[in-house]
Amino acid sequence: MQRxxxxxxxxxxxxxxxxxxxxxxxxxxxxxxxxxxxSNQLTGYGIVVGLAGTGDDSLxxxxxxxxxxxxxxxxxxxPGVNPALKNAAAVMITAELPAFAKPGQRLDVTVSAIGxxxxxxxxTLVLAPLYGADGQIYAMxxxxxxxxxxxxxxxxxxxxxxxxxxxGRIANGATIERAVDTGFAxxxxxxxxxHQFDATNAKRVTDAINGALGPGAASMVDGASISIRxxxxxxxxxxxxxxxxxxxxxxxxxxxxxxxNARTGTVVINGAVRVGTAAVTQGKLTVSIxxxxxxxxxxxxxxxxxxxxxSSDIRASEEYRPAFLMKPTASLAELVDAINRxxxxxxxxxAILEALSQAGALTAELVII
Length: 369
Prior knowledge:
Layout: H1 2-17, E1 25-27, E2 32-34, E3 40-49, H2 60-71, E4 88-97, E5 106-113, E6 124-131, E7 137-144, E8 146-147, E9 150-153, E10 159-162, E11 167-176, E12 189-194, H3 199-213, E13 218-220, E14 225-229, H4 234-245, E15 248-250, E16 257-261, E17 266-269, E18 274-275, E19 278-280, E20 284-291, E21 294-296, E22 307-309, E23 312-319, E24 324-326, H5 332-342, H6 346-358, E25 362-363, E26 365-368
Helix pairs in contact: 1-5
């Protein structure tokens, strides 16, 4: 079944890629993003209350957090008295602050238990600050959690857990209190960064921008960044960004790569892969041991004992598979056809690709993840 699935997958891959897939046009906005126009991670610590006995009363963080929460309202617990917190849990809060987000706008937040809380279902997050990497408060979070998991304990100790009940989300659960200065309105240049380093793509993006805005409007900083002449107000800059992002560019053919997942045996080969002249053979040795013990009975009145006599049958067989010759600059389709003719399993396929790479016949980067 696994072999059939592999061959079907490779055949589908060949049908979709062809011998050498031509480069396709893409919008510049799908190839990268402008410098400064990125999200920022926010993190905070808080207390979730209102749980149905599924909290963590043994965690000091929860106790200290609850004492701090009630102290905001003028309530001070006597020394040495710790509140019973089975209905509360200490949590970590995470969120992403989008570029150009303004105070008063809302964010979705993710809330995750950091102690032994069994479930956060039905809980409410008490007002908690969210901090950026610079230690400043950028948002305040509070609200009722939505949990996608379920955890149930029975009286006899049996348990049933569906998904992860100790983590949930609050839609629009945080209010932005501070904006991040992106530096977008400063300077006379905008920097566009490609998602991946590729000098050919950088040149084609630069040429497309110069074709739309005029010669000298854009220049390559390196193989991953393009500098674009900009000026004027924020409205002019945003119009420029909108124009640039929607320009079409013919992507360069990606580098030839063979991706191998060593844990699952998955192999993905892109259409740029070529194989040089090489002869490949793959054998299969099978050793089988069959045990057939026999019971030996003593002769009548011999005062002997019943014994078990071992009997082993060892056989070794090697399946003959003829070698096949890869033609010079064989394409992906020819490589897959040859592999299908041999009928090799996924593990042997990885070994063949590694051997071709070591022999210098595989014109591709072999990436093992």
